[in-house]
Amino acid sequence: MRRIVFLLLVFIGFGMILSAKTTIFDRNCVSCHRRKGVSLRRTFMNALLIYSGEKNMKAGLKYFLRHPSKETSVMGEEYFRTHRLKAPTTLTDSELDAALDTYWQRYKVIGNLR
Amino acid sequence: MLRSERSTLRRFLALYAFLTLALVLLVSVFYYRSEERIMLLRRKAQVADYAADQIKRLRRLHEHFPRERTYPRDPRFRSAIYDLEHVQIFSTMRNNVVDFRRDIYRHDGVIHFVKLLDSYYLGAKYLFIEIPDDRTWFWTTLGKTALGAGVALFFLALAGLYLARLFLSPMRRSIELLDRFIKDTTHELNTPLMTILANVEGLDPSALDARQRKKLERIDLAARTVSTLYDDLKYVTLESERPARDTEFNLKELIEKRILFFETMFRAKNLELHTDLRPVVIHADRRLIARLVDNLLSNAVKYNRRGGSIEITLRPGELSIRDSGRGIPPEALREIFDRYARFDESEGGFGLGLDIVRRIAQRYGLKLSLDSEPGKGTEVRVMWKDVES
Fold this sequence. Notes:
By secondary structure, chain A is mainly α. Chain A is 69% helix and 0% strand. Chain A has one domain. The longest helix of chain A is centred in the first third of the chain and has 20 residues, at 2-21. Chain B is α+β, with helices and mostly antiparallel strands. Among the domains of chain B are: 3-134, no CATH class; 245-383, Histidine kinase-like ATPase, C-terminal domain (Heat Shock Protein 90, 2-Layer Sandwich). In chain B, strand 1 and strand 2 (88-91) form a beta hairpin. In chain B, helix 2 (135-202) runs antiparallel to helix 3, helix 3 (210-237) packs across helix 5 and helix 5 (286-302) runs antiparallel to helix 7 (353-364). Chain B is elongated. Classes of the chains: A mainly alpha, B alpha+beta. Chain A binds chain B through residues 41, 45, 48-57, 109-110, 112-114, and chain B through 62-63, 65-66, 69-71, 83-85, 87-90, 119-125.
């Protein structure tokens, strides 16, 4: 009986970790970026350099992900000499907002300096 | 110095003081501000160097974040970074009340220098450099400002006094002239007036026929009217400056004497007199109280109708004189005690009467009340704190 409960708890805990890991951000953004070898940390820091604030960045990236263009990209000319522009996102509005929220939350500088 | 002159002078000085103070304050603030600007500009060059150093370090940190997480610190200054939305990213500053619109400012013991970044390392758009505010600068500047203001105020005050004298001298001269004229005239009036009164009294009415007696009475009446006027003038020009000679006396006796004096006038207007006087002892200057009573009686006669009545009541703490005249319109009641105010232009006089009453009442702390009903009459009450009661 105790073993069953223990197993159940482990199961639930595992499931929670898994479900936490599989946000829309992980499923959509992270997997593709890993595939393409484009560091999300690097894109974040580049974006920060241009957009500065949280709201500004989210709005700017949202627009970019919907309508990518070399002119508005934060990657710089150097990158596009060897790489292609990404395709517009297929996510819905709310999915995109949620993904960007996770992105900011996980990579932000505020609160992570000593 | 006369009352009107004094109030004019006071008004002028108040205006002058206000204007000079405002001017000195304005100049002081201006001076202080410019001194502050100069000091800040001097510090700015130095602090701009600090900012350039800090930006280099921020750039390095941006490139190595998040492997490197330690915000760059410098013993020479404290700093903070804010993003485009004015959200603080990190701060080592002591004072985190920041102003994004100015490039350098003093606040609560520190100086903040604000540098806008071209590329937002770590998302920072604003870099604040904080250095301690040099307190000695503040105190020396404040001292200099205060000293300058004090010296300026001193000279302006001297100039103000000079101006006030200049401004008042023509007025003073004309007032002095008028004053002297009235004093001289008043003085010259005394002897002939007394002569007339003494001689009229000396005549024996029973030795005259009815017509002659009537004429004599008219002369007596006119002489008494001039006599009260003379007393008023004397009070206004001379007596009010003389120290009061207060004694204890019976007010009832004084009032009875004054009634006797006014008798001719009552008779001339055919006034019926009702008196109800109780003995009351007060402590005051007899002559001043006589002026007060005279003026009240004279008004009661002057503004009464022919064949009317006068009621005089004396109680401890209160004297009331009621006439049956046409009364005073309510809108005139307020300024009735002012000098030269005559609420009824049809009557003669200088309008000195109630002003004198007011001044004497003020001198002895008496309360005056005036109730008037147009068409029915006026009651003037003089109230004081009775020592015996």
